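Aggregate trends can hide what the representation actually does to any particular protein. For completeness, the protein is quoted in full, as a sequence line and a line of C-alpha cells.
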Amino acid sequence: MYKIFLDTNILISAIVFDKKELELIIRSVSEGDQLIISEHIHEEATRVFMDKFPEYIESFEKFIEVAELEIIKRKVYIDKIKKYSDIRDKYDAHVIACADATNCKFIISGDKDLLSYKHRNIKIMNAANFIKYLKTD
C-alpha cells in the first residue's frame, strides 16, 4: 500500500479531461493505496471547478468521497513549508511539505516545476509514468 499525494491538475484532469489520471486513481483505490490532498489543494481545486467547470463541482465532491481522498489540514504541514523554499514555484512548497508530513511515497502532478524537483524520499511523477511504474512494480 502506498501513500500518494495528488496535485490539483491531476484531480481536474481525472474528472474533466484525461483518462490516464482517472485510471491511476481507480487503480490506486482498488489496490488499497491511500490518496492524499492538502487543504490548499482542496480549496484550489474547488475554486477552479467553480470558476471554469461549474458543471463538474458536484462530480468533484462526489469523487472525493468515492475515492476516499484524505484532506490534510494546514496545521499538519504548515511548519514544513519553509523547508522547501528552494523550489522554483513557491506555491508548490506546500505540496511537498504536506506529502513529507504525511509520509507519502509519491506525488503525482502534471506541473513541470514540481516534476523537476528532486526529493530524496518522495518520487514525483506524472500520471502516465506512475501507471508505468505500477506495472513494473
